[in-house]
Amino acid sequence: MICDQQGGALGVTIEAANVHDTKLLEQTIEAIVVGRPEPEKHPQHLCLDAGYDNPTGHNTVACHKYIAHIRPLREEKPVLRGKKKHKPRRWVVERLMGWLSKCRAILVRYDKNAFNYLGLIQFACALFWFRRLHRMGLT
């Protein structure tokens, strides 16, 4: 799953549980349903965890013209003194997954067909976007 900085889902793919995330990175980026502005005019950042710190992850991000923010595998966590300079980003994806887990049909996979299950996830993401825009008064 890929989301924006506020936690809105932009693209979703599904695969078996034993497939590593780096093999799905390109497929997930291509699943983004929102029109993307030109990367040359508006630079876009992509924050990834340490699992993507490999040549495949770096090449995929560079191929799609994102500015990568990948924490290296063996990097020590910085000691923060005083006020934080930026918001943490990883919790945004986890929060989105928590929202999706409240949908019972997604939490317990009843569908045998992967295409139907993907449709349910996409429908739930669209419902969350509608609720979000409704709260903002844009619908």
Structure explained in plain terms:
The chain is α+β, with helices and mostly antiparallel strands and 139 residues long. The chain has one domain. The protein is built from five helices and four strands, in the order ββαβαβααα. Strands 1-2 form a two-stranded antiparallel ribbon.
Task: Label this structure with key terms.
about 140 residues; globular; 5 helices; alpha+beta; two-stranded parallel ribbon
Give a nutshell description of this structure.
With 139 residues, the chain is an alpha+beta fold. 37% of the residues lie in helices and 9% in strands.
Which series of helices and strands comes N to C?
EEHEHEHHH
Count of DSSP strands: 4
Helix tally equals 5
- Calculate the mean pLDDT score and round it: 85
Task: Name the poorly predicted regions.
Answer: none
Which structural category do the helix and sheet elements fall into?
A: alpha+beta
**Largest sheet data:** 2 strands, antiparallel
In total, the number of domains comes to 1
Fraction of residues in H or I helices: 25-40%
* Adjacency order of strands in the biggest sheet: 1-2
Q: Strand-residue fraction? A: 5-15%
Radius of gyration: 17 Å
The termini sit apart by 25 Å
Shape: globular
Write the layout of secondary structure elements.
Blueprint: E1 2-3, E2 9-11, H1 25-30, E3 45-48, H2 55-63, E4 67-70, H3 90-100, H4 104-107, H5 114-135
Parallel strand pairs: 3-4
Antiparallel strand pairs: 1-2
